[in-house]
Amino acid sequence: MSTQIPKQTEESSETEAETQPASKGEERRAEKRRRAAERREQRQEEEAEKAAADESTVELKVFRYDPQVEGKQEPRFDTFHVPFTKGMTVLDALMYARDTYDSSLTFRHSCRQAVCGSDAMFVNGGQKLACKTQISDLDEPVRVEPLPHAEVTKDLVVDMEHFYDQMEAVEPYFQTNEYPDGELEEQRQDRENREKIKMSTRCIWCGACMSSCNIAAGDNEYLGPAAINKAYRFAMDEREGEDIKQKRLEIIEQEHGVWRCQTQFSCTEVCPKDIPLTEHIQELKREAVKNNLKFW
Amino acid sequence: MYEHDVVVVGAGGAGLRAAIAAQEAGADVAMVSKLHPVRSHTGAAEGGINAALRDADSWQDHAYDTMKGSDYLGDAPAVEALCQESPEEVIRLEHWGMPFSREDDGRVSQRPFGGLSFPRTTYAGAETGHQMLHTMYEQVVKRGITVYDEWHVMDLAVTDEDDPAERTCHGVVAYDIQSGEISGFRAENGVILATGGMGQVFDHTTNAVANTGDGVAMAYRAGVPMEDMEFIQFHPTTLPSTGVLISEGVRGEGGILYNEDGERFMFEHGYANNDGELASRDVVSRAELTEVNEGRGIEDEYVHLDMRHLGEERILDRLENILHLAEDFEGADGLTEPMPVKPGQHYAMGGIETNEFGETVIDGLYAAGECACASVHGANRLGGNALPELIVFGKRAGRHAAGEEMGEAEVTTGRSSDWEPADYEFGVEVGETDGSDPAAADGGAVATDAESVVGGAVDRAQERVDELLSRKGRNHAEIRSAVQETMTANVNVFREEGRLEETLEDLREAREAYKDVAVSDPSRTFNTDLIHTIETRNILDLAEALTMGALAREEFRGAHWRKEHQERKDEEWLKHTLISWNDGEPELWYKPVVLEGENKTYEPKSRSY
């Protein structure tokens, strides 16, 4: 597919103009419709002109695949030329391409501010959140693909079920056997301890780390960086107590747990929330060793 | 067909809390959401949760601040419930492991926020919503509550009696985004709508792309009145280019607003001589735009929010997330330069009319959170009051739907004896256009038994999807952006009659255009073109109701400013605006606000900060 130029969609304005307006309100609305159609035409012409002038547009090559639609069952790349605006992100460019050229272009996105974790993608060969990746920081053409090492559902959408299963495998919820007496009394937590778990609580479940991890690619049962980080978040939280920590260390020490990590740091490099994932995994390994020594 | 006791639509803060509460009360619960729960927009909330936790504070003071902040359009029984129950709910979150910011003695931290008489905003850095959302989802995982994620709820399954007050909701119809399957969800006890905000009605908004007000629009078309739709909060500090939110926490910690001349205008131009930057949000937003309109804005567009003097240590400790947002989305370094900010759509005070237990006028249908209007926020929401609303009213709706006895409600729903018809002539036709989106159900099925009501709703939804996929027509995107443009241009912070009328005409035009809408992606797999097209219909209905309310309310109260009506008119307007869909012919009416609380009456006073 080559560059798409926006098509003229507005043809109804003339026929509407010919019909006798029923009332003053109708007349006014018909006039407004005519004006809107003119504005629209003008805008589309401008867009097409802009798209044609190479310097002000960005060239996107986007992975396309749909198991159900003829012509898309074989994966391919489509090229879109998107007018560049200051501050434009990869997500902005994809939305423009979808809303202007091809409404079937499919990707997950919601908050636009790097907190919902919906739009992790493979951009120019790296796992990125599309909403916080500036086009101006990238080489052209910008190549956008779905996250590697996950099954592609359609276009840039991958199946996240396996990721969610791994997250849920580490008992990802707070547990303690000791609550304060009063119902309105909080558990105390040192500022240092809160600081210690702070980065680990920033995870937005985007899946970039899991996608970047060679070990996870080869061992489907490996818990992966995000799930181990979730375990870290609780294991290091002093509010849970020693008995619970014991149980947590057993979970992460299993065959497909922390010992699989070969400290390649790829997860840490791609994490859009700057969580020191590899360090957390290493620290849990040390905790596990210390814990095992206790029983010698 | 899936069957559960309670079906919760939406899986953000209110939905998660409702599901947990219903399950604890013994119900078999399922959550149905178009997003996976952790993608919900509760996660973007930054500032905090108001709760009177300390001895020197009291729920009564919190209630007083909230009533004043609401410009006396909050209903006291709902406001008092919020303030009484927020402390126990906040401590519950702490007991569920939520990582709050801490004081030296290990207790949870609190900070000052706009319009509060005590620093009672409990927080986790500037990412309170993210921590709250994840903490509650963890509890849902722990409890094994069923979640149907990436299922888009298209419609409610409601009986079709003439009087909405006699109707019953038996479930919902949802579209599985992954597979394209349409299925009914029968709810034995009740359906709880927790679908969040409607920010996509505007184009400069802090809301997510998914915040299209689906629940409000569905309830509206099923016969539940929408309440106080004209009251939209424009947050004073959003990044100019994207609408990304910069927390009120920045001002709470001591951040200062400056105009182009370097004046601290909140004081120097007399907008809020006592509270300055920490005046209520509506006051600060109007002040900023006045500065810009009078030529003292920067690049004629925004003002500066400066937090450099707080020092790196304090900023990193309490506002770190703000540094990332300003850097990533505006290219500004909050440690070394002031951040550009301007008002942006942030929150809908109005929504689905409910009482203080989340019940709507339709039997078996509840709403909680931003989509609902109990009303705790009235004409203006205070910062830090949205998150407690989610947990307090999510819990209440969940328990009530699960069958727990909770006593008599004091806030009425539907037309009780004191309702009043509106006599406003709009001059522009509103409501359903002939033949627009024919299968978008309004009212309900002819059948009355639950199975057939749900079955009928499924058939109509199937017909609608098949029609949208098979016919040729125009794409929804252009219609959606036309609506967003006119709303942002004309139904913004400052509102005037002529432009509001013009907006109704623009919306009429958009409705006409929507008649020809079609989905060009033929796929049954992850067809976001289809989902967005359905959402756009919801945006249209909401934008229209919002504008109708803004035209009819001829006074200036809270967030609703009218050029022609520069004062609050308590004689005439201490009442809620309600709009009933009325099978396609929207009807405007009023009911009085409830100012009588448990032990006192909140007498309207002039509101200055």
From TrEMBL, chain A:
Kindly state which keywords UniProt assigns to this record, in alphabetical order: 2Fe-2S, 4Fe-4S, Iron, Iron-sulfur, Metal-binding, Oxidoreductase
Q: State the organism named in the record.
A: Halorubrum distributum JCM 10118
User: Where on the tree of life does the source sit, at the highest rank?
Assistant: Archaea
Decide whether keyword Transferase is in the record. no
Bias category Basic and acidic residues: which stretches? 38-53
Q: Which cofactor does it need?
A: [3Fe-4S] cluster; [4Fe-4S] cluster; [2Fe-2S] cluster
Query: Can you name this protein?
Result: Succinate dehydrogenase and fumarate reductase iron-sulfur protein
A GO molecular function assigned to this protein is: 4 iron, 4 sulfur cluster binding
Q: Where is the Succinate dehydogenase/fumarate reductase N-terminal domain?
A: 60-164
- Region of interest (Disordered), ranges: 1-56
Please report which protein family the annotation says this sequence is part of.
Belongs to the succinate dehydrogenase/fumarate reductase iron-sulfur protein family.
Matching Pfam families: Fer2_3, Fer4_8
Tell me the NCBIfam families matching this sequence: dhsB, PRK05950.1
Q: Locate the 4Fe-4S ferredoxin-type domain: which residues?
A: 201-275
GO process annotations (BP): respiratory electron transport chain; tricarboxylic acid cycle
From TrEMBL, chain B:
Magnesium is among the record's keywords? no
GO molecular-function term, one example from the UniProt record: flavin adenine dinucleotide binding
Task: Write out the GO biological process terms.
Answer: electron transport chain
The answer on whether this UniProt entry bears the keyword Endoplasmic reticulum reads: no
Give the Enzyme Commission number.
1.3.5.1
Instruction: Name the catalytic site residues.
Output: R281 (proton acceptor)
| One GO CC term on file | membrane
- The FAD-dependent oxidoreductase 2 FAD-binding domain is annotated at 5-387
Q: Keywords in UniProt for this one?
A: Electron transport, FAD, Flavoprotein, Membrane, Oxidoreductase, Transport
Indicate the segments forming the Fumarate reductase/succinate dehydrogenase flavoprotein-like C-terminal domain, all copies.
480-609
Q: Which InterPro entries match?
A: FAD-dep_OxRdtase_2_FAD-bd, FAD/NAD-bd_sf, FRD_SDH_FAD_BS, Fum_R/Succ_DH_flav-like_C_sf, Fum_Rdtase/Succ_DH_flav-like_C, SdhA/FrdA/AprA, Succ_DH/fumarate_Rdtase_cat_sf, Succ_Dhase_FrdA_Gneg
Q: Where in the cell is it found?
A: Membrane
Q: Which NCBIfam families match?
A: sdhA_frdA_Gneg
Family membership noted in the UniProt record: Belongs to the FAD-dependent oxidoreductase 2 family. FRD/SDH subfamily.
Name of the featured protein: succinate dehydrogenase
State the organism of origin. Halorubrum distributum JCM 9100
